[in-house]
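Before drawing any conclusions, I needed to go through one protein's amino acid sequence and its backbone structure tokens, quoted below without any editing.
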Amino acid sequence: MENQLEIVKNNQVTSLIDSVDIGTIQGTMQKIATFQAVIQKNLKDGHDFGVVAGAGSKPTLLKPGGEKICMMFGLNPEYEFLERTEDYKDGFFAYNIKCTLYRNGNPVSQGVGNCNSMEKKYRYINVDAVPDGIDPSTVEKITTRYGTVKYKIPNPHIADLVNTILKMAKKRAFIDAVLQVASLSDVFTQDLEEMQEFLQQEHVQNIDENSAGNIKINFGKNKGKTLGQIMKETPNYIDWLMKNAKDQVIQKACKILVDKGLSKKEDTPETKEEDLPPFLQDQEV
């Protein structure tokens, strides 16, 4: 019986191959390659796509890039809930969403996306000290890339992130649908920007006067020094960073230090090029 089924399957595959116009397939594959080349040419690196650290070398398609692709080819997204859970009592929220891309009213591709409050970036928050009532031995201790020590504790205000979790599920479904247009998954990976965005946002929100002064600089002759030390030695450089730094965490930390006036205002040496962040060296300041 199994041999008969195998023969039937092989015959079906052979029949399918025989019915295909090879010339048409070659033409379609060429169009797909041209389409992918057009997409890569018209998307902006660092804005529409980018390589996320730890995610391999293949570029990640970001939400602005997905939206631009839809505009270029007249695709309109529509969303529907496949499943949703909103438990305000126990603090659990989950959304499973389907995104369908339409062109002239006809469906072109579909994608699904899920997000829930048990994901690590939503479930926990980073604090400077372990609150009373929480066993320190159960808390994960981390050192941020800015040199500050944080402790991960359960988020006591998880309900405040309901809208964020919902939007993340929609974005994942959207990017999944876009990547299926003309095999764009050959060019880009799934949208991994949310982790980077969330961590950056979390750092910005949690900065206070103490943590601002403890943030370490990893460029220029001040490399290895904290912003607090630099504020005391060359406060004008902190003022310059506040106005020019692209890193939102450093920018906000410098603003806190400047506003608090942690050092005496005195004449200091002019900022030299080697003191500048790498991305601003060799540029007019």
User: Anything to note?
Assistant: DSSP finds ten helices and eight strands in the chain. The chain has two domains: 53-205, 207-280. Residues 22 and 28 are 10 Å apart (CA to CA).
